[in-house]
Amino acid sequence: MRIGIIGAMETEIAMLKEKMKLKSQRTVATLVFYEGMLNESPIVLVKSGIGKVNATMCAQILIDIFNVGAIINSGVAGALHPDLEVGDIVIATEVMQHDIDASIFGDPRGVIPGMDVSIFKTDKRFLNACDSINGSGHLHKGRILTGDQAIGDSVTKEFLHDAFKGWCVEMEGGAIAHVCYLNDIPFIVIRAISDKANEEVELDYGSFMEESAKKSCIILEKMLLAM
Length: 227
Known about the structure:
Blueprint: E1 3-7, H1 10-19, E2 21-28, E3 31-38, E4 41-47, H2 52-64, E5 70-79, E6 89-97, E7 120-121, H3 124-131, E8 139-146, H4 154-164, E9 168-170, H5 173-183, E10 187-195, H6 201-226
Parallel strand pairs: 1-4, 1-5, 5-10, 6-8, 8-9
Antiparallel strand pairs: 2-3, 3-4, 5-9, 6-7, 6-10
Helix pairs in contact: 1-6, 2-5
């Protein structure tokens, strides 16, 4: 099965791009798609750009043009759960978009109007493979939240954790999961914590983003080897 791998930024795909055996590359809608092998896994690696629209377009191109059978989203995130520290890994058991808000029409915030599902479940095959990873540091499983905003204040952080029970927050995974659900394609979101999503976000993110992105890539590679 060919697997699509999406990172929003160059730092989130750089390690995988160096390690993969490149066979070809192709540009579609300004995005560069790298086709090749990562160890024994056929992959298509791509930098989507930041945010839900970029991630949505990228995921649908992977499905329609590159015929991937599953999608992995790897990258960094801000911590919401108090147990998380910078450098920890969160494996999504499920993903939702916290910034969808049609509450004025009676739907709770986070519910996508007109859809039967708003919380998207991670494929069990990916989760089972993650269970077999040993010696990978602080690895957690839980709900990951997505929204088109960077979180950098304690009040919003506390609200997102309390209201949606999110472990961490980022800007692409929920959109990718949404596309995968509509196309009946399995997915998983893997995130390494780059900051605490509080008032120190600018300092933490600048200091730890690159190293955290590498940690997410390492877990991704180990997971594929375990499948």
